[in-house]
Amino acid sequence: MTGPELVPFIKSIGYLGILISIILENGVILFFFMPSDSLLFTAGFLASQGILELGLVIVISFIGSVLGYMVGYWLGEKAGPAIRAGKAGKHIDEDMLNQAKQFYNRYASWALVVARFFPIRAFVSLLAGASEISYRTFMIYNVIGGAVWTVSLTLLGYYCSEFLAPDDLDKFFIVVFICFLVTVGAMMTFLHLRKAKIEKAKKAALTAENSAE
To answer: What is the mean pLDDT of residues 105-116?
Structure first.
């Protein structure tokens, strides 16, 4: 669904439709194709035109994003044991499953926040439940990620309305999304290299200490 098509669509579904759309897209993998990013951006654009109320759009979108992730976590929590107990579970390596769980627990903050900006949102929340990560940890980053995602995209659409027409929404959003990908990629690369450098320094210090003994 393109930007120009989203304008009449959002007008027709209203606030309740926005809430339901975001819950489904964030929590049920069958609805991963729904354009929630574009929906938030366009809703912000419509708020700048006085068609929607900006504060209400942000609050409803935030609630929907948090509830959606909670639904995904619950589905993953229920489906995970069932899958492992069934025929498919025979093909699951428990060691690999434990490693995946440890990895997810370690990088849950990045996954739950950054994944909000990609069409894999529902998969991430589902995996969180299936991996049995701490619900408290999940909820903390669920709230943070939901707030960052909904507020940033809605405000972006709101403040960019001064120089955008409905027909320009798609092109502009694609440019912004590419810039976001580049920024996130650069940040993750920097953090990875920084961590590798610190670990290398620690190993060198430990080696020197052992040699001195």
So the answer is: 74
